[in-house]
Amino acid sequence: MRSVRSPEFDGVTFHEVHARSVLNKVPAGSGVPFGWTVNPYRGCSHACTYCLEGGTRILLADGRTKALSELKVGEEIYGTRGHGASRRLVPTRVEAHWTTLRDAYRVTLEDGTRLVAGGDHRFLTSKGWKHVTGTKFGAAQRPHLEPGTELIGVGRFEPTPDETLGYRAGYLCGMLRSGGFAAEPDAATRALEYLPDFGASVGFLQVPADPDAHWQRGFLAGLFDIAGDYGRGVLVVAHDEPEITEAFAGALTRFGFAHQTDEVPKFPARQEVRLLGGTAEVLRFLHVSNPAVAWKRSLDGAVIGASRRLVEAIEPLGLQVPLFDITTGTGDFIADGMVSHNCFARNTHTYLDFDAGHDFDTQVVVKVNAPEVLTAQLKRPSWRREHVAMGTNTDPYQRAEGRYRLMPGIITALARSGTPLSVLTKGTVLARDLPLLQEVSADVPVSLAVSIALLDRELQHRLEPGTPSPQARLELVRKARDAGLPCSVLVAPVLPWLTDSAEALDALFARLAEVGATSATVIPLHLRPGAREWFGRWLAGTYPALVPRYRELYARGSYVRKAYRERLGERVAPLLRRHGLAPKTGYEARSPEPLPEPPPEAPVVEQLRLL
């Protein structure tokens, strides 16, 4: 309908739309304790530092990788072009970069790779482009991924090595034993950066009797930079010293590279080591070793398709998350090794006025006709009056609700139809509707939950900019209880070494008990891909000393280690009992992945996906 900006909402644009439906069915298997949601807003000015997506690695034109969320317009990356029955890598530029809010799905491959994408996203398969989701029959019929589908790409991305002292020694050995500074300026620049680490010693020129992995990664890079070559799909290194070629072949073997060693007829003293396996193994070599010479990293024209990986499962995450996308000159790009189509064409955003660079928390879509549409949907004979949860995707009481006043009509429609309802919010605008909620609670079950993670106002402002203060939310709980409504509190997320001390939790629980909260559920921080990178940057900039400790806690994935959960549970359980806040009923969602259960008496659950 129109887009609105107002001085009272600095930096936020509201896009007013007429929705066709606002009553949303939760996908089967999502694990949440409700089947339906209503979200009058798309986008949220209450967005938090730890609630963003975008960590999928994208192949750059120099062979390195970068998170999708960090790409910039104008950057060179790799796309593909058809070449007979195959495809080849070609450089292309990022023409646009934006984010949107979509239902998210996890695509798991048989090699363990996990991709999070919207249902409309398309990947290249052995039988053409296929969407993440679809059906074989009916209105939603379209080519889509299934278990066993072959995806085409360049193989799984490997992490780039850290430039440890061992890596630097290996690089200098390989580079200087092959001719040194005269040949390649990029290699010379790197060597000059590394040399001061070793002072007057030249011990790094010797090949160690038992080199470690760091040294071997550096050695592969240094030798390739000076004595290596890549062209027409073949990567080779030629050298006159048997000790060097043997060390190179040994390093390749260590990292699982197939190779062969041949004599060079024109130069009897020279041996040539050839990498086998095609483009996928060449790319893996570049990632494992990280050579410095730019032109040798070029994969322009390389044939792809030999590396095929099978889909193991496609699972709905049961919520909408901000998903990033780009437009490229070729119409595709390489995402975590897979050929990926530009799934959200630019024009699909223009009718919502979403332009490149506008993020989830600054572009809010308002379904201005939500109460009327919901009323019509609830009158359908098929409606079974199942529990409807609000606040599951975006906060219904974010600041925009003070302007648009959609929730009174939504609450009234639900109550008149006899539908139980619940609200989860951080927004104090909820206080406006407490009299209405109190009134309808005589007719249908009503439950409220307020998210309060900590009392420290400064830390809360850094983590949740634009949200009401902890004190304001505590007062909201008090008002809800004074109105006779049950109101629980989600202490989420608990941040290790920042908000998890017994003193901090005891003080918070005391305040919750003081304002009359019916219960509290404690949820440790959960870092999904994308959220992990964004939170990591925030942590590095704010509390750099904690970065190594967080890496250890979250080394196995998105969820904190079991030992930490158990310690937190042991700390929390007696404090909740002391303050009379132990949960009496579960309003919690289990993780979609199998995880060890916390101790029975410890009310510590995984991060709610509805958050």
Structural class: alpha+beta
* Main sheet makeup: 7 strands, mixed
Tell me, what's the shape? elongated
Q: What's the quaternary structure here?
A: single chain
What proportion of the residues form beta strands (DSSP E)? Answer: 25-35%
Catalogue the unreliable spans: 47-53, 343-360, 585-611
What is the spatial order of strands in the main beta sheet?
3-4-23-24-25-26-27
CATH architecture of the largest domain: Beta Complex
Number of domains: 3
Give an overview of the whole structure.
- There is one protein chain.
- With 611 residues, the protein is an alpha+beta fold.
- It contains 16 helices and 27 strands.
- The strands form seven sheets. It has a seven-stranded mixed β-sheet.
- α1 (165-176) packs parallel to α3 (213-227), α3 (213-227) packs across α4 (242-254) and α7 packs parallel to α9 (407-416).
- The longest helix has 18 residues, at 562-579.
- It is elongated.
Topology summary:
Layout lengths: L1 E4 L7 E5 L5 E3 L10 E3 L2 E2 L14 E3 L5 E3 L8 E8 L2 E24 L4 E5 L3 E4 L2 E4 L18 E4 L11 H12 L8 H10 L18 H15 E4 L2 E6 L2 H13 L4 E6 L2 E9 L3 H11 L13 E2 L2 E22 L3 E4 L2 E4 L5 H4 L12 E5 L2 H9 L9 E3 L9 H5 L2 H10 L4 E5 L8 H7 L5 E6 L5 H7 L6 H13 L4 E8 L7 H14 L4 E5 L6 H12 L4 H7 L8 H18 L32
Parallel strand pairs: 2-22, 4-23, 23-24, 24-25, 25-26, 26-27
Antiparallel strand pairs: 1-2, 3-4, 5-22, 6-7, 8-9, 9-10, 9-18, 9-19, 11-12, 13-19, 14-15, 15-17, 16-17, 20-21
